[in-house]
Each structure stands twice: as structure tokens, then as C-alpha cells.
């Protein structure tokens, strides 16, 4: 069993940036994680490290931020409220004014998950200048010796077969199930409770196949500014998954106040100083936590035969694969028929 994790959050003694408390962390080459409360005060980066400034869930309040300088700027999504053309344009114009040499933006559910959403991968160049990498589909980018794997809101459920090895920063909008991913709901009958995260299932499993050094995300405002290394012993994930993720640092970078329509921001940017790994250090990192074996996951378009249930014997093709823990669900186009969801135990992939 992995050792118990410690959970931390920003508190009243945190360094202030634009009057908002900011979380500051340093992840050195040996992957230990320590809080550095002097980051902004001294404006210094430890030798051999890069400064990554992380924004998330700013919901049109980006103009109120004083963004610290850094080597890389990342936004984990929900930079708008409704995803309208005007909102995206305003955010992109503000972003282009920032001096960071490298900028990465992924969409959140407010940016692409609403009826008024205007932003797509195809038209993103019309909004974002050439110096901004807008990443919708799961993609690996390498910047200044850091390997950064990103997946937007609509794609983060489908990364199981795409998670590359040896990732420094994993960037999604929502977090893995059970790690700062639950929203506090209030009911007049039973008081406050934690809601289920409908999109986090399977994300931790994907991480376990190739554990990143750091996972950056947002989405759930209530846990913005919280981080931990590894997952707790009481997490429902298997012991193998817990052990594989024991060295990963999980950070919820959400900045907005609580609620679906926040009235402002409660937190400043997350500031992460991280040391790129040398080739030898990368080998040591991969060997330190043997990953969970990756299952064979069919790609979209694979052919299959239904082996159980009322459709037994019918042929079909895979449209989508979803993962929930160790189990799989397939969206299948039946040959000459409609589309259905099937459990992985009901099909046999043939190509």
C-alpha cells in the first residue's frame, strides 16, 4: 500500500498576487514537492528549473489578474462563461498581451460544452494568435525540455489508449475521480454533500498506465488551490493504481468563486517551478513507479463481433471507448443498424 498522502491548500499566510492568494510549488528533479512561499516575493527561480504559471476557471474575469512572469503559461479551461465568440475573442486578446514565451490553452466545459459555444479546433486560429497553442484533441508538446500532455474537456474521457509515457505535466480541465473533483451541493433537506464527478471516471486509471510527474486541472471551484502527492489509502482505486500514482502531484488550479456562474475570482495563478529531467533522471523516474500494464484498447473504427445479449452474432464498429476503473464501455455502430452502448465483456474485437 502507498504511504498516506498529505493534502495542502493555500491559507491566509500565502503570498498575495493582485490581492488574491496564490499557490506556489517547486518540483525538483528528484520529484519531491515542497511549498515555496517566497516565489513571488523574491521573483527568483531555482537554478535548473522552469517557471510554469497556471490559470484555470477564470470565467471572463481574466482582466482582474496580475499574472506573474514565467517561462510557460497554461490555462486549464473555462476561460469563458458561455463560450461565445465575443468571450473567446476578449480572452484571446488579453492573452496575446502577456509576455510569456510559451502559452498553452485547453477548452473547458463552459468553452465548448454549451449551446452557444463558438470555439472549435478548426476555427481556433481565427481567435488565438500564432504564439498560443490551443489544444483540443489529446496532444503531446515538448517545451524547454518538459513533456506536456494535454486533453480538452471533450477529449479527456478518451485518453486511455493515447496517454504517452514519460510525461512531466498532464493538463486536463477536470480532475481524476476522488482527487479534489467533487462539488459541494446544498440541499434544504439533507444539508451539504459532495456530488459525483461524472467525467472523472477512468482518468486515474489512464494516469496509472504512465504516471506523470504533475497533473494540472481545475473545473471544481471549491477545491481550487488544493494539492496532494499520490492518492489516499481510502481511495476506491486498486492498490496497483494507488502505487503507480504515488509520486504524481495533483493540483486543482481553479480560481473562480464557487458556483456555476461565479461572481469573481478567489485565487490567483498557480506558480509551479519544475526542473526538466536529464536523460538519466528520466530513466530513474520511469523505473521508480512501475506503471499498471496498459490494456489493449481498440481505436475508433475497429471491427468487433457481439458475443452476448440480444445482439449476439451481429457485427459492428467502435465509435468511442469509455473507461470506468478496470472496465470498458463501447459505443458501437451496428452493421446495418443503429448505435448502442455495450460492455466490454459483450464484444470481441477482431481488427
Descriptive account of the structure:
By secondary structure, the chain is of the alpha/beta class. It folds into two domains: 7-288, Purple Acid Phosphatase, chain A, domain 2; 303-349, Roll (SH3 type barrels), CATH 2.30.30.30. The chain contains seven helices and 23 strands. Residues 1-18, 37-41 and 184-199 have low confidence and may be disordered.
**Widest sheet: strand order?**
1-16-17-15-12-11-10
How many structural units, i.e. domains? Answer: 2
Order of helices and strands: EEEEEHEEHEHHEEEEEEHEEHEEHEEEEE
* Proper CATH architecture of the largest domain: 4-Layer Sandwich
pLDDT under 50 segments (min length 5)? 1-18, 37-41, 184-199
On the 0 to 100 scale, the average pLDDT is: 77
Number of helices: 7
CATH superfamily of the largest domain: Metallo-dependent phosphatases
- Helicity range: 10-25%
Q: What would you report as the Rg, rounded to the nearest angstrom?
A: 21 Å
* CATH topology category name of the largest domain: Purple Acid Phosphatase, chain A, domain 2
Shape: globular
Secondary structure tally: strands: 23
- Our estimate of the beta-strand percent is 25-35%
Highlighted features:
disordered N terminus; SH3 type barrels; globular; 351 residues; alpha/beta; single chain; 7 helices; 2 domains
